[in-house]
């Protein structure tokens, strides 16, 4: 029996499974419908679908924490903070979300914890961690008993300046353990040992809020599998399930992070070191940037309306997936998304009770996807899609073809806007980067995105619907640690002490994961004195001395100029301020090798009516039959088990040595466009 490593990614519509044979490197893939009521059912069904295998290890990309936050399913959550700071969540920040213009029209949303569930405890530390007045054990006991009497079992603790000294928070936890043993507790000094108390408070509370659901899900899945497994984290690393339940906030962008990493490896293997990645699923589209083979990382991310300052792959998500619903606004205009039909009931063509037209229905109506999914496993009701499109067209006063094309055009512009947020808004020229698109619905709008954005090309990997699951098998074990140290005059001895402490924490965690020879990656957050926010730059390994310090500062000047267009490298009036020191502890794993494509497989070319600029009989190619160097000129459609690639008129698709389909505008069409 073959021994395999398995990656399982639970999406909104499908659960994707990839297995890599540890002896031969052979890659097996499959998909199964997701089970939103209990994601573990789809997880287990997907593994069983692979047949009898000797499973060496399993890595899981989960949406349990993400969905709980996006759906605002947060209740019975308590907050304990420093006496006198009970309104920290109410005050929050002065900024108003984009799109509201005048703040008069913006209504402040409910806080993650209502003020009547916020309690304070006496005691105070200064910004250096020195005790100003002692921790009040008496008040701590009173607060713990208050929460216990009201049945509040998920509690976040964030005391002022606990990033500098966690002692008071740890004493509060000891009191809670003693007085309220049923409580699930998150300390800010464990979750985010970094200054800015509002963001630290919310991040800690998000962690506490998702802990019960994640612990229940992980425990249930462990019992069903009967063996340990690992979970993908937002920072681009993995961690064993037994460890990740202690900080479930680290999983909030689990699936999208895996997709970006898998696409980065595939693109690098094919010779594209810097790309844009686009993961199109049933509910949403996730976009990320890969520079020199590495996805961009941010600590300014958010999930839904909650800021989460943990390190995570910089991903922009928009509600533009295959299940996105087309609807008519009160003004009479056509809109698409962000609401989705999901997996159940799904689009009209699923025949499971859906009542609203979706993006998938538009593709079916236009003939751009076949009348079935997953190689015939899921038949589609083309008549239901046609009836829905015709009814919507009647309300709009348009032809059905124009209505369906309009739905896809709006969806393409929604995706292009997400790409612009990561490129144009950050000083990058979108025309310099190929797009790697994957996911079940990702390749469907590839040609339109080339037109809209002026992309040089779009690369579509083999088995695009399983790239996120494949990405789970390319990921190292990784933990991040941070310590705030604000100074304009860096004391090298203090920096050595902090980095040594952070590396010690990272080493202990990796030792528990079974790594004897970990790798430590340093970085630092710096800013010009007087600025409110900082820039994160990589810091060299080795001895921390004056040469090391000068190198980090030089990297900061370079990064600042790249981001903002200016730097004060030679201006002594603008000093550099150090803010945070960081260490990532990495336990390297063996990545699967992407094989070169051999001779073409089987699969006959057929013909069916497809609508692009007009409806005509169009060649339908089976991707398995396209060998290296094969060329397909539009109009055409390339089909495979988990996805479909429409090739519009004026575009050409070429298969490279690794089986990727690369689409670009044909030279004549590109010249005419210019």
UniProtKB/TrEMBL annotation:
Ranges of residues in domain Hydantoinase/oxoprolinase N-terminal: 5-177
The Acetophenone carboxylase-like C-terminal domain, residue ranges: 497-658
InterPro entries tied to this protein: ACX-like_C, ATPase_NBD, Hydant_A_N, Hydantoinase_A, Oxoprolinase-like
GO cellular component: cytosol
Residues covered by the Hydantoinase A/oxoprolinase domain: 200-480
GO terms, molecular function: 5-oxoprolinase (ATP-hydrolyzing) activity
A single GO BP: glutathione metabolic process
Protein name: Hydantoinase/oxoprolinase family protein
Lineage: Bacteria, Bacillati, Actinomycetota, Actinomycetes, Streptosporangiales
